[in-house]
Design brief:
The chain is an alpha+beta fold. Helix content is about 50%, strand content about 15%. It is built from 32 helices and 24 strands. It has an eight-stranded mixed sheet, with helices on both faces. Strands 1, 2, 3, 4, 5, 6 and 7 form a seven-stranded antiparallel sheet that branches. It has a seven-stranded antiparallel sheet with strand order 11-10-18-17-16-15-14.
């Protein structure tokens, strides 16, 4: 059914609905059967085969496939020639590819389930509907054609509809029509049947948002029959954006791969040179050396890197969801750890958004809390509002609800006042206007009521200077106590009268002082950007122990008079921007970003949405407007500022996890290549067979390495600066640690080869060398748990996966050597030898722990002046 070519009354009649009474319960059931439910058919998921093919075409996997092809080709040729082909290398490379692809596919499934949880949480929004002459809240999915729906600024339109009435209505239809500017709507127009979608100004559409004003509409199409349901691919669906961390790791992965290729080429050239010098040069010898070099490339390529990034970020999405932070984009999981400034709205974010009227001041006198609401002030509160009360439940603006509660406590029934009046015109409140008005017929009277910021209302009325000065003083005193003022006036017979003003209070959210203090300790600055007056905002800042002197507090008007350069010079000192408009907030965020800050913006109102969208991390309150939640990267389901600190802690831990993972991977790479080159220079045979290198590849890229990227320890943010947005994963500290550990491993293994200090039999030497290397890596994996100077043994058993993988790898290596000796060309070793090897390799852990212990003692005794010269600076982020 088309609705834009019919009047609202015709549409209501066709759907058996009524503007005043809505649908009956019986008609709602009938319309659901006739027109369908308000659910979109789910997009068909990609199959497992598609995911496997996609995983195989990752750049690093292509290198492995190329290596497999060459290795298989050479061995097939050798087999066809003389039956001597050795396919162990091919099997090993195939296993490496299979493990990586399997992990990618499994974790992609986990990622999909995490985002399904997100979509389910987002679909829980409630809609104000008229049914059986009762105003009720329904979920969007319960709507049916014919329902009469009320939507206000910030709301998401839940279904297509024909507008019955609207006031100053503008909607954002960019996700449906591509039109970037809000569209002005009207109720009265009747349009030709072939009017394009973007020009149907008398209709609203599912998935769009109310940018300004308010609307009453009758639902005309739901689910797949709505315009958004007809668009292939679900227009509103977000694409996952690559996290900056993933881009850094991809670059690092390419660097490691190129480094591996260069080293492999060098090893190949050195090995061929040795063959020439020794007089053993032959085609078969070159083939063997070539295969060995190809397998070294396989061992060097970190094919598990992309999978590890996805797994770690996805699991953090799940963990944060359990902590009431709904992450909408993977990018936010890491970026939130870089946040250095939080620009926060006050009402509903720092405060509980539970308004209480402290006092009412009228020309006749001052009345206490919930005082004397009668006459034109009562009519103003009842008519100049779209809020509703239903027992303990409130619908609409917290401020408007507070006035309705005050009316009720004064013995005034606001619903009766509304029922006996006729509304002619309404101008909704906006952050730019800072007031709302309504024109109504009350019996023979025709009155326009105004309600808003005193500085907007006082110029409209004629008040003697003495009284105006007294009012302004009382307002100023109230604002110093953190109270807001709203003034009332009305126009009748061409004259405007001042009716009074109310002082309203809003308590800080529980634990806010502690949360802001924790932000300071974590190196994160907090700035308040609020629509309230300077005195009110400064009072809140003082209660939060934020600087609130004259130089720390500015208004939006002052900001507008500053040049960008002047504003930048003052921004570090500014903690409060009062009377903020969306433009002020945007300007503040943009300039902070130009100054190198990583900015998070928190808020819940429509006026917060532009800044939230523009910020590095946009954070919306779960109780906030739909348009704000749509613009955000993170939604706080419990509306708690504390949850932001949890998210920052998780974000910083993500960064640390990848440093742990990379340190381990590079140590395995560097040590294996260093040992091979050292052996070749000394005229020794490479200690690693091709199969041995593939086993090392499993250690480097397998579950053991992955477990390092899944550390979930709580971080103490005290004294720790935010991670800079452009910080490299690999630091000088990490490189020095890798170099030192590589040197120790290489030295011990080379000395054992040259001098056999363990006293093992000659036929056991190659097995001992390989086992020394493997055990060194396992103990070093524990070292890599800590990227700073804290003990790596602290909380070791909290990472149960790491402990399990260490035990499994130890056991698996001993079993392979003992029962499948042909795999590594190895021999069985005695229990005494295994214990000796483990003790020797544990020295790398003892060495690292001793160094850290000494560092901590020196720092405690001598302070930072000596400690700063240490190689490993505690938690230093470069």
């Amino acid at each position: 059914m088309t609705a834009h070519d019919k009047s609202a009354k015709e549409v209501l009649k066709l759907l058996n609905s009524d503007e005043k009474y809505g649908l009956t319960a019986a008609d709602a059931v009938k319309n659901a059967a006739a027109f369908g439910s308000n659910r979109l058919t789910e997009k068909k998921k990609k199959g497992v085969f598609y995911k496997i093919i996609k995983a195989l075409f990752e750049p690093m996997m292509i290198i492995l496939l190329f290596a497999l092809t060459i290795t298989a080709g050479i061995n097939i040729g050798k087999f066809l020639k003389d039956g001597s082909g050795d396919f162990y290398e091919c099997i090993g490379i195939t296993v490496a590819i299979a493990v990586s692809v399997a992990l990618t596919v499994i974790m992609e499934g986990k990622s999909e389930r995490a985002f399904e949880y997100l979509r389910a949480a987002e679909s829980r929004s409630r809609v104000k509907v008229k049914r059986d002459n009762e105003t009720c809240l329904l979920s969007a999915e319960e709507l049916v054609a014919g329902d009469v729906v009320y939507s206000y600024a910030g709301d998401k339109i839940p279904a297509d509809g024909r507008i019955i009435s609207c006031n100053a209505l503008k909607t954002d239809e960019s996700n449906l029509t591509g039109e970037s500017m809000p569209v002005t709507k009207t109720a009265g127009a009747i349009l030709p049947e072939n009017t394009p979608l973007a020009e149907r100004v008398n209709c609203v559409f599912a998935g769009s948002f109310v940018s300004e004003g308010e609307v009453v509409f009758v639902v005309t199409a739901v689910g797949d029959n709505a315009e958004i349901g007809k668009v292939a691919g679900y227009v509103s669906e977000e694409k996952n954006v690559s996290a900056p961390l993933k881009e850094k790791l991809d670059r690092l992965g390419k660097f490691v791969s190129v480094f591996g290729l260069v080293c492999s080429a060098f090893v190949f050239a050195l090995s061929v040179f040795r063959l020439i010098i020794s007089g053993e040069m032959s085609f078969e010898g070159v083939e063997d050396v070539f295969i060995h070099s190809i397998v070294l490339i396989v061992a060097a390529v970190p094919e598990g890197l992309p999978t590890t990034v996805t797994i770690s970020l996805t699991l953090n999405v799940v963990r944060l969801a359990k902590s009431n932070a709904l992450i909408k984009k993977l990018v936010a999981t890491e970026t939130v750890g870089c946040v250095s400034v939080i620009c926060s709205d006050k009402t509903g974010t720092l405060t509980a958004n539970k308004m209480l009227i402290s006092s009412l001041v009228t020309p006749d006198g001052t009345y206490p809390e919930n005082g004397f609401f009668v006459g034109d002030i009562a009519y103003n509160c009842a008519l100049n509002s779209t809020a509703e009360l239903d027992g303990d439940k409130t619908f609409g603006s917290a401020t408007e609800c507070a006035f309705l509660i005050a009316l009720t406590k004064s013995g005034v029934d606001y619903k009766k006042l509304r029922s006996k009046c006729v509304t002619y015109d309404r101008i909704p409140f906006s952050s730019e206007r800072k007031y709302s008005s309504v024109t109504a017929g009350i019996g023979a009277r025709r009155v326009t009521y105004y309600k808003g910021a005193p500085e907007k209302i006082f110029p409209l009325v004629d008040v003697c200077p003495e009284k105006l000065s007294r009012y302004e003083k009382e307002i100023s005193n109230g604002q110093k106590e953190g109270l807001r003022a709203l003034a009332f006036a009305h126009t009748e017979s061409g004259k405007t009268y001042f009716d009074g003003f109310a002082l309203i209070g809003d308590k800080l959210r529980e634990g806010m002082e502690k949360a802001v203090e924790s932000c300071k300790n974590a190196g994160v600055k907090v700035k308040i950007l609020t629509g309230d007056g300077a005195a009110t905002a400064a009072a809140i800042a003082k209660r939060l122990n934020l600087p609130a002197e004259k130089r720390n507090v500015v208004t939006a008007d002052e900001v507008s008079r500053m040049t960008d350069k002047e504003f930048k010079q003052r921004l570090n000192d500014i903690t409060v921007i009062a009377r903020s408009t969306p433009e002020t907030k945007l300007k503040t965020v943009s300039l902070l970003q130009e100054m190198g800050e990583v900015v998070a913006v928190t808020g819940d109102g429509v006026n917060d949405a532009p800044a939230i969208k523009h910020a590095d991390i946009g954070i919306a309150m779960g109780s906030g407007s739909e348009i704000t939640k749509r613009a955000s990267d993170i939604v706080l389901l419990n509306n708690s500022f504390d949850t932001i600190l949890t998210a920052i802690s998780f974000g910083r831990n993500v960064f640390d996890n990848f440093r742990r993972f990379i340190t381990f991977q590079l140590n395995v790479n560097a040590a294996s290549i260093a040992i091979i080159i050292t052996y070749l220079i000394l005229g020794l045979e490479s200690p690693f067979t091709s199969m041995c290198l593939l086993w090392l590849n499993v250690i480097m890229d397998g579950p053991l390495a992955l477990s390092l990227s899944l550390e979930s320890r709580p971080l103490d943010l005290t004294g720790r600066k935010p991670v800079k947005r452009n910080a490299d994963i690999l630091t000088k500290t990490m490189l020095i640690r890798i170099a030192v550990h590589t040197f120790v491993m290489c030295l011990v293994i080379t000395l054992q080869e040259l001098y056999n200090f363990l006293g093992v039999a000659s036929y056991e030497k190659s097995t001992v060398t390989v086992s020394l290397f493997v055990f060194f890596q396992l103990f070093n994996a524990v070292n890599c748990r800590e990227v700073g100077s804290e003990s790596a043994l602290k909380g070791l058993f909290d990472n149960k996966l790491l402990v399990a993988m260490l035990f499994t790898t130890f056991t698996l290596h001993i079993l392979i050597v003992s029962f499948f000796p042909q795999t590594f060309d190895s021999v069985r070793l005695s229990l005494k030898t295994w214990v000796t090897l483990a003790l020797i390799c544990s020295t790398i852990l003892v060495f690292s722990e001793t160094y850290k212990w000494a560092y901590r003692k020196i720092k405690a005794v001598c302070g930072n002046k000596i400690a700063k010269f240490s190689i490993m600076k505690r938690r230093k982020v470069t």
